Amino acid sequence: NYALEDLKADLIFEFDADFQHDPELIPQFLEKIDQGADLVLGSRYMRGGSIPRYWGLMRKVLSVGGNFYIRLLMLDRQIHDWTTGYRAIRPWVFEKVRGKITELKTYTFQISFLYFAKKAGAKIAEVPLNFAERKWGESKMPGMSSTLKTFTFVTKTRIFDFLHSRFFKFGTVGFTGFLVNFLFLRLFRSLGLKEFWAWLFSTEAAIINNYILNNLWTFKEKKIGGVKKTISKFFQFNLTSVGALTIQSVFGPLGVKLVGVKYDAAVLAFVVVCLVLPYNYLMYNLVIWKTWKLPWRKKLEPHK
Predict the structure, then answer these.
(1) If residue 87 lies in a helix (H) or strand (E), which one and from where to where?
(2) SS3 233
(3) 51-73 burial string, b = 16+ CB within 10 Å, else e?
(4) By the 8 A CB rule, do 37 and 54 touch?
(5) Other beta carbons less than 10 A from residue 165's beta carbon
(6) What CATH number labels 2-163?
(7) Who's near 75: CB < 8 A, 6+ residues apart?
(8) What are the domain boundaries of the chain?
(9) What is residue 53's DSSP assignment?
(10) What is the per-residue pLDDT across 62-77, written as a single tens digit (0 to 9) for each?
(11) pLDDT tens digits, 230-268
């Protein structure tokens, strides 16, 4: 805070003062900043980086294994060292992140800062760091309780992200659509409709259900408002769902014919999960709510 508010710093550096972080790397950090990076990391685990040979087995396991676990859960292959304390940070990144950090000690701070910086849209780069052997002082390696706290933070954060992700919401809505589809399939069949029409109408019922719930929940940041627009988008939604209707109307009766009516729930589940959901997710993101942009579509769009 002092560096930002009183010194009006153009850049913030974080590093250890015991020379385990080589100050001669600073020009490389500045070069990355000049190239457009907002946050630069000194990485021990990228090509050209290293950790001290004298580290004991347990410390190596915790450091290397911990970073591997974080990279695995964060689904980010570009960042190699989530716990490094050698960083160059643009002031705007610090301003965006500091109010969200609740843990100011141990590796949880480093990980959470980097996590929130990524969410804020910071461009992140890395510089290879050969972490020097300690010559003075004692190791600051945290104890098992701090390690457990870090592990808990990473795990809880990713679970929270998943439960609030568009993909999870889409899957949940898809499951409700499956239930609607199944119940109406049984209803229409009990009314004497032929298998093709029973599958067709029950699929349409599921499409209506999915349109309403996806508009109100899954894609709420892109929510379609207004009566006219909602209705016109619904017809567009149905047009894009012709593929889903065709898939279920063809493969549903075919599956029932192959394995028997008593296994219709299994047939429906297979068709929905393996064929309909991937198709719908693609159509919803590309056509209806337009959250994905294809490169060739960007070229066709007029410049504003």
Answers:
(1) strand 87-89
(2) helix
(3) beeebeeeeeebbeebbeebbeb
(4) no
(5) 12
(6) 3.90.550.10
(7) none
(8) 2-163, 166-300
(9) T
(10) 888 888 998 888 878 8
(11) 777 778 777 777 787 788 778 888 888 888 888 888 888
